[in-house]
Amino acid sequence: xxxxxxxxxxxxxxxxxxxxxxxxxxxxxxxxxxxxxxxxxxxxxxxxxxxxxxxxxxxxxxxxxxxxxxxxxxxxxxxxxxxxxxxxxxxxxxxxxxxxxxxxxxxxxxxxxxxxxxxxxxxxxxxxxxxxxxxxxxxxxxxxxxxxxxxxxxxxxxxxxxxxxxxxxxxxxxxxxxxxxxxxxxxxxxxxxxxxxxxxxxxxxxxxxxxxxxxxxxxxxxxxxxxxxxxxxxxxxxxxxxxxxxxxxxxxxxxxxxxxxxxxxxxxxxxxxxxxxxxxxxxxxxxxxxxxxxxxxxxxxxxxxxxxxxxxxxxxxxxxxxxxxxxxxxxxxxxxxxxxxxxxxxxxxxxxxxxxxxxxxxxxxxxxxxxxxxxxxxxxxxxxxxxxxxxxxxxxxxxxxxxxxxxxxxxxxxxxxxxxxxxxxxxxxxxxxxxxxxxxxxxxxxxxxxxxxxxxxxxxxxxxxxxxxxxxxxx
Length: 475
What we know:
By secondary structure, this protein is α/β, with parallel strands linked by helices. It is built from 16 helices and 21 strands.
């Protein structure tokens, strides 16, 4: 763990980080005790009020973020391999998407540091000058998931530092290694001790961080169930909170859609990182006349994908992150079959050379009904459900008939139809005729049970600052 500029083992029980492709133990770490978490928060608090960080001029803070970006880029190959070994995502994802996206975020928010402004406003009070400023919150707790450990951390970390906050990071216990390596680079960049702290461990460490009285904000990405608990605790203690939670993204394939393009885009959008994506396209609403064509082409494409160790550049899909995730996927596949969905491809674990890892075949169901659990519950695995519809007027009702509202997709050759559907679907992000896209400048977050608040763009600057009003008498 990194606490106040010192690397310590921590005082809790030991746990291991495992390569999900092989079952090999990569590292042994320690659970953060309540005392460890307290020490990290105290260190972050002291750094926040110190001149070394709190008194740093904006241009100097921007320069530090740019230096972190440069170091991350210089070590990109090393960190991508580490991410692949610890999480399982293929190198074309870690090296081609995750690490470059993290670098982009540091540079983007470095640009914001010198541009965070308040406003002046005319008041109906005579003899008064009025203006606002944006100020940092203080110590922020960043709790990150295991599906994109580095990238999602940086979505939180870059704006938190750009706005002058200090942080305590609690990475997912399954995938802590890229976070610890990034913390080393942050030290190397010259960020003052205590500004960035890392504690390792599972739920108990997270609970200690959420409940600590000196923590002013929690940013959490993870399951809806845990997000509800965190939101409730932050409500009781009046902490600011951002929650990016589960998803069950609908993908609407209109009758006039280019089926081949839709198959390709939905294959990528549904099976990226073996389906371990909160915005994965997982329920496909296809015009009944084209349902069979779409389902058969999707199943054929999914069945042709190569599974294997993500370090192999020829691999399309890596393993799931853990044995628990494999078991969960297998349970949902069994439910789908029991409830009457037609299994077109996949539906089992591979054998042979892959038997020692946490692999599961990409799985496609056809003829799925709206009330089936595979159509309603987040699986977080490579399971795709194709659902026919007869009446275009019912499409929006079907797509919105979910507790989730993180993301959605629309496929149509008619730009009017596509945009009408995009406006009506209740989701934080809608992509039209494309797989998922992300950019540091584009706001990201969910509606309904998919979360609270937004990350990325100017919205993240707002999330890590609070507004102060200043009145000055001119008489």
